[in-house]
Prior knowledge:
The chain is mainly beta. The protein has helices at residues 2-13, 34-39, 43-52; strands at residues 59-78, 81-101, 106-117, 125-138, 141-151, 159-171, 174-183, 190-201, 205-215, 226-239, 242-254, 259-273, 283-292, 318-330, 333-344, 351-366. The chain is built from three helices and 16 strands.
Amino acid sequence: MIRGVIIGLFCVVLPTNLVFGAVGQQQNKKYGEKEVAEDKNTDEGRLQYDYDRDKPNKWKINGTFRYLYGQGRLEGKSLGKYFKEKLIMPTWRTRFYVSYKADEYWTINGAIEDNRVLNDHTQDDTVHWHRGYAEGNYPKTKILAGRFGYKLSRGNVMDTTADGIRLRFGESKNNVTVFGGRIGAEEARREGYILNAYKLWNKKIITEAAYLQFKNTNNSEHKWNEQKVLDLTLGYQFAPDVFLSWEYLRAKGKDLENSVEDQNGYVFNFNYGDYDYTKKGSYRLRLRYYRQPQASIIVHTMNGYPGFFDKGNQHMGMRGWGLCWDYVLTKGILLTLEGYDLKNLRSSLYTEDFRERIIGGSVTFAF
């Protein structure tokens, strides 16, 4: 059923002239359209767009230093007993990016990352390769091959590092994307694929359809052995920096002990404004309402704790609000404040009345 829906939607938006062409890369830089939105959808993409979009340099070096402090209150009932916990997590993250423009069409990108949890160094993820991929940009085709960031739509289903090949066919207003590869590492590694179709109608209405399937063939005892997600988005662009969308989710999955049959959910997304690292006083406000089944979460973009609602493999899902405000204090310094108030979407035989309230903030220094 899910595959039938996604194939039908792909046929609606599939361009008829998917050719490489030889007239140079498109230069469509009106924010709100897919090409620029995709460019700014990842950390490195935003840095290169904000700092380097008008520079012809073959070599580009960017980076960020981020201090984040988060505090959460977690409570609920497990096996009939009420519990309450307090979670505090201060972190320091460092990222360095380098890119080399080999010719008119191809760029080589690399990055290293270091993550430190300041109150629990057992959770540190010390210096490691964060990115390493080739990027080809043709008028009607975009190619990514290697290790790159993949943020699907607004990141409610997936926002993580992926190893594989990603092909986007079509123009910024009308395109199809195909990905094959893996995410995660060691026992959490999962192989799979993504099909994604996007169309902008009359410069205002956005439709997007995606189907994801990932399997853990490396560890049969992992929390999710298999997940299948259908993600359908209908959005309206009121202005270049004002956007509202409804994201319908249908997902199912299975683990070692049980299967989760088709569950439905949705997310309302509202964005107002957009920040630019080089523009003091620029800002972005993001408001979300989640009613999201657990099987639809591959790797969530939020700085909340969606895994709390999957304690003991109970797959409860979550419902509630999220609010995030980004503000550029001065060139290269970004302040972010965010908060979440979430409850379990459904109860299980062993768990009920789960709730998490999280507030946090970060300062990011970028160049």
